[in-house]
Amino acid sequence: MSVTGLPFDDFRALLRELPGPDAQALVAARERDAQLTKPAGALGRLEEIAFWLAAWSGRSPAVNRPLVAVFAGNHGVTKHGVTPFPPSVTQQMVENFAAGGAAINQICLTHDLGLKIFDLALDYPTGDITCEAALSERDCAATMAFGMEAVAGGTDLLCIGEMGIGNTTIAAAINYALYGGSAAEWVGPGTGSEGEVLQRKIAAVETAVRFHKDHLDDPLEILRRLGGREIAAMAGAILAARVQKIPVIIDGYVATSAAAILKAANPAALDHCLIGHVSAEPGHLKSIERLGKTPLLALGMRLGEGTGAALAAGIVKAAAACHSGMATFASAGVSGRTD
Amino acid sequence: MSVTGLPFDDFRALLRELPGPDAQALVAARERDAQLTKPAGALGRLEEIAFWLAAWSGRSPAVNRPLVAVFAGNHGVTKHGVTPFPPSVTQQMVENFAAGGAAINQICLTHDLGLKIFDLALDYPTGDITCEAALSERDCAATMAFGMEAVAGGTDLLCIGEMGIGNTTIAAAINYALYGGSAAEWVGPGTGSEGEVLQRKIAAVETAVRFHKDHLDDPLEILRRLGGREIAAMAGAILAARVQKIPVIIDGYVATSAAAILKAANPAALDHCLIGHVSAEPGHLKSIERLGKTPLLALGMRLGEGTGAALAAGIVKAAAACHSGMATFASAGVSGRTD
């Protein structure tokens, strides 16, 4: 990290100079695909996924060390009664992850995915976004840098997820700040906000965006003012993956809001990312469409924890296996078309 | 099998007396689900799948011995030039399955699924449905009985797929006979029929259904007159799974046409079945809707081989793992809602 200048300067520079796709690996993948023992295009989206893996990893499609990274944070906005669960649940769920008792643990076991949990200063919730910035620029940049470390251990497919009581309120505020419309259209039930709780959630998002309204032209300012630690860390992890040629699967509504910050800063910033699953959270499909993406799965989940991304990783693993493991028409002695 | 009466008599009796869901296992699964460390309903369709596994297996949701059964057959209708691939490809692909070179092999490896291939008298294509019955009643019943044996080795999740040059023509004829409309709306490109080939495919389906029109009130007559060996075997396998309390995932357009025969004979006959994936074949979504089902995946594939069902099995395995492996709020010490 830079020791001079403002803390965001390095990220601004990084976002201006993102590496592009690997054209040679992409051409090689398309050439191999045309020889595999199936009618052209018959594996549909699995073929597109294989090409995407090639383009953004820079080599033949393969998934040998998939990793789910889950970032956990706490949020000052919970003091406004925006969720039916107490903030202490964030820490309790981190312990549940560590003990192997959460949904994400079972999905990682099923699909043979590594799992790392990053808890981010859970005893120090971010500022209350309705009347102050969530984070200082220094704290936000440091948390992004921390998130970049998530990929340091080595992986060839990174699934990005989160846990944080109150963070669908945060995601709604980010989307409202980025895309406009009304607060109500970006706020959903999250873990189960209904009735008065849901009304307080909408009011908090409305108040927060109004409070910060003169500072929302800059995506990184939106991140530090309206975001949270897990959001900043996810943004950092997605950026680091790009630089290190690691394709990324993004999870639900909250993870998508972190990705949206990067897309707003550079329209090409998410070209190495898939959206794993469209959540039941009402604003998610709309936010995915703003990113120009089509989610891989639609299973009506709304849990976070990286669960949607991890399920999608099972599909991505199969796509890589088909591409690398199938026989060619020539090697298998299978006849081609007669026309 | 009965040694007296007509060959179909046993199947007619079986279809009248199908076992229902296990209410006790279903209640137990719902009770456990309510205790798991997640907001109520937050796993969406994964929870529905767990309940479905409980109801139709009669025990706590588990997938320990998943099996993909692929049935292969050849079809006299190919003499009308309805497909760009020669019928010899059916045998060649069976050999490719045996050698581990096909897409279904890679998906089974990825998701740790057993795979069995059943080739059905490939040297003796069925009769040309445009001017004769595909099968005699005796042959059709024997092939259904053969299909029932597919589950004999023991499995707790059966994925049903097929391979057979010409069999999307067969599936279109079955759907047209069952549901009416026009031949053209049930015929699609299959492995890649275009232009004149596609027109010949539509004409063959039109001619076949017209030729047999006085015998299409009985679903089993539709099966033997317009079907094929792999279709009859898949119908038998789905039936046998019901009796043996094995939940079933049905693959693409052709496998769905086999299932549709059973549904026409008894509206409850597919209650133990999921549709794994909606194919790119234009008639598939419409045929799925006729069965009252919602496909689990939509990945634009159109390959058959059980590939869509096998990918869906990865989701079903994860659903069972979440249900059985997650901690409860009490055991994990996670707080519930405060309201």
Automatic annotation (TrEMBL), chains A, B:
InterPro entries: Nict_dMeBzImd_PRibTrfase, Nict_dMeBzImd_PRibTrfase_bact, Nict_dMeBzImd_PRibTrfase_N, Nict_dMeBzImd_PRibTrfase_sf. The keyword Transmembrane helix does not apply. It catalyses: 5,6-dimethylbenzimidazole + nicotinate beta-D-ribonucleotide = alpha-ribazole 5'-phosphate + nicotinate + H(+). One of its GO terms (biological process) is cobalamin biosynthetic process. Its EC number is 2.4.2.21. GO terms for molecular function: nicotinate-nucleotide-dimethylbenzimidazole phosphoribosyltransferase activity. HAMAP family: CobT (MF_00230). Catalyzes the synthesis of alpha-ribazole-5'-phosphate from nicotinate mononucleotide (NAMN) and 5,6-dimethylbenzimidazole (DMB). This is Nicotinate-nucleotide--dimethylbenzimidazole phosphoribosyltransferase. It comes from Ferirhizobium litorale. The lineage of its organism: Bacteria, Pseudomonadati, Pseudomonadota, Alphaproteobacteria, Hyphomicrobiales.
